[in-house]
Design a protein that fits this description.
The structure holds two protein chains of two kinds. By secondary structure, chain A is of the alpha/beta class. Chain A is built from nine helices and twelve strands. Chain A is globular, with a radius of gyration of 20 Å. Chain B has two domains: 81 residues, Phosphorylase Kinase, domain 1 (2-Layer Sandwich); 121 residues, Orthogonal Bundle (Transferase(Phosphotransferase), domain 1). The chains are: A alpha/beta, B alpha+beta.
């Protein structure tokens, strides 16, 4: 008999369909994924959902094989309930419900943002970090306080990743990381409006200005440089404010945009000024993935936070501060 | 500056963005607020941010003062070091007033609402309206830290002021947030009128909903 509890997690909130397997000792046995890559432009929710449905079986098989377990060894099945794109979320939820029903195992509905933080804590060993969550669809600064991850600041309009992706696509170089790669060939910084409000940020004015400068003949490389520098400066600044406000000593950057080297470099320097520490999350656990859903699902399952299949609807606008995180109050687990 | 040098007294606060010192000049107590360079930013970005905000802070504070909104008087501006010298307002910041539940909090909230509405009616916004940026002196709220303020007729900017205050109260003082915001609203409405107040509150709701899951820009 093995002594570990095993949770299988399914992620499908946006581009990625992922299946992960996590154990109660904090081991990630598998983290397999397939990514929908639209050729022409941004994500089309319906097409992405079709992609997820078509790869689900194969990704699941790969994950089980990598984990070296059979389906029967799974103790709980977790899925991303939100936030995310409705059609994509529903595809993952359907697979999870079918598995839970067939195996007669409890179902766990996971908040995608909480999962990014939990896999970050697991992989870095941080206990109580201030977190910058930056991705294509999300931008917020959060930290744990009184049983939940509280939102200290967030975007007032579009997400940071979305701003950079949209710029890249519209000037014809493609989404991230293209704008950051091209920024290294930028020579001149063109001033752009950096709108910071308390710990909130706004990127739509920045995007509009950068696009209009692109139309009036500014070099795309210079604009990439200016835009990435402006966006990352704003993000680092609100993170710095949150760090100063809370007095905490650990900093995580999670979500797809955490892959940015320049952003990591800025955050790392900022954190050093405050005598705090910053650790980077391994690349395979940074973007959207199934392992983070499996691990968070496991924490929830161990705290009795399961959901009946008939009540397991998806929540495209699920906020991070709606979720209770009782494991943060329990030092033996954190 | 004319009238002799500044005599450094002590550091009042080291914030995320600025260092605030108490200085004496010609017998007057002044606050010197210096935006410090941030080595993590590109020098051009750093210079842009510090200069823009320092200039804007002095300009908007001056205009707010003329509108009768209590805030420190600007005495001197030194852009080369991004430093503002301003009147020293003695008092407690609103955070400690709220934590200790002292004084007539509804009346402070109402007065604050009226002052913020006065700024908004003149198409100004504060941009960082949180309890730590309000100093209470003998029951009267003074607005400080105008670094993120600006001039705009756009209702969005005014609603953001409202939203920031509401959210920071809800996260910091959940038990009294509702009562505080209700008094704030009544003070705001006295100046801005019921129609405008309703429009602002509708926009606040919209901003809140937007944060719930940010829509992507699609081609």
């Amino acid at each position: 008999m093995r002594g570990e509890v095993i949770c299988l997690g399914i992620e499908s909130s946006a581009h990625t369909f992922g299946v992960g397997v996590a154990t109660s000792s904090g081991r990630i046995l598998a983290n397999e994924l397939a990514v929908y890559r639209p050729v022409d432009s941004g994500i089309h929710p319906r097409e992405a959902a079709q992609h997820h449905a078509s790869v689900a079986h194969e990704v699941l098989e790969r994950a089980l094989e990598r984990a070296g377990i059979g389906l029967r060894e799974v103790d709980a099945v977790a899925f991303t309930a939100g936030p995310g794109l409705g059609p994509c979320l529903r595809t993952g939820a359907t697979v999870a419900r079918a598995l839970a029903y067939r195996l007669n195992r409890p179902l766990v509905a996971v908040n995608h943002g909480v999962a990014h933080i939990e896999i970050g804590r697991l992989s870095t060993g941080f206990r109580d970090p201030v977190v910058l969550y930056v991705a294509g669809g999300n931008t917020l600064v959060t930290t744990h306080n009184a049983g939940r991850y509280r939102i200290l600041g967030e975007t007032l309009d579009i997400a940071a990743g979305n701003c950079l992706d949209a710029f890249g696509i519209k000037v014809g170089i493609g989404p991230m990381p293209a704008p950051e790669l091209l920024a290294s060939r930028g020579e001149r910084y063109v001033p752009l409006p950096m709108k910071v409000k308390g710990m909130d940020v706004s990127f739509s004015g920045l995007l509009t200005r950068a696009l209009s400068l692109a139309r009036t003949g500014h070099r795309v490389e210079d604009l990439c440089l200016s835009l990435t520098e402006a966006v990352y400066s704003m993000l680092t600044e609100v993170l710095e404010r949150a760090l100063a406000l809370t007095g905490k000593k650990e900093v995580l950057v999670v979500g797809g945009l955490a892959r940015s080297r320049r952003l990591s470099e800025m955050v790392s320097r900022m954190v050093g000024l405050h005598g705090a520490s910053f650790r980077q999350i391994p690349d395979d656990l940074l973007g959207d993935n199934g392992a983070m859903i499996a691990w968070t699902g496991l924490l929830m399952y161990l705290h009795g936070m399961t959901v009946p299949i008939e009540e397991s609807r998806v929540r495209p606008r699920y906020r991070i501060d709606e979720v209770e995180v009782p494991w943060m109050a329990d030092p033996s687990r954190s | 500056m004319d009238g002799g040098p500044f005599e450094e007294l002590r550091v009042l606060q080291v914030g995320a963005e600025a260092v605030v010192r108490l200085v004496r000049w010609n017998g007057l107590l002044l606050v010197a607020k210096t935006r410090v360079p941030k080595p993590y930013r590109r020098p051009e970005v750093d210079h842009q941010i510090r200069t823009e905000r320092t200039e804007r802070e002095a300009r908007i504070m001056h205009r707010a003062k003329r509108l009768g909104v209590p805030c420190p008087s600007v005495v001197h501006l030194e852009l080369s070091t991004s430093t503002i010298y301003m009147q020293y307002v003695l008092g407690d910041d609103l955070r400690s007033v709220l934590s200790r539940r002292e004084g007539d909090i509804p009346s402070i909230a109402r007065a604050l609402g009226a002052y913020v509405a006065r700024l908004h009616s003149a198409e100004l916004y504060h941009g960082d309206l949180v309890p730590s940026n309000v100093i209470v002196q003998r029951g009267k709220p003074y607005l400080i830290d105008f670094g993120l303020s600006g001039h705009s007729p756009d209702i969005e900017e005014h609603a953001i002021d409202y939203h920031l205050l509401d959210r920071s109260l809800r996260s910091g003082y959940p038990e009294i947030a509702d009562a505080f915001m209700e008094s704030f609203r009544s003070g705001y409405e006295e100046v801005a009128g019921p129609l405008r107040t309703r429009e602002v509150l509708e926009r606040v709701e919209e901003i809140r909903a937007r944060g719930r899951y940010v829509e992507r820009v699609e081609d």
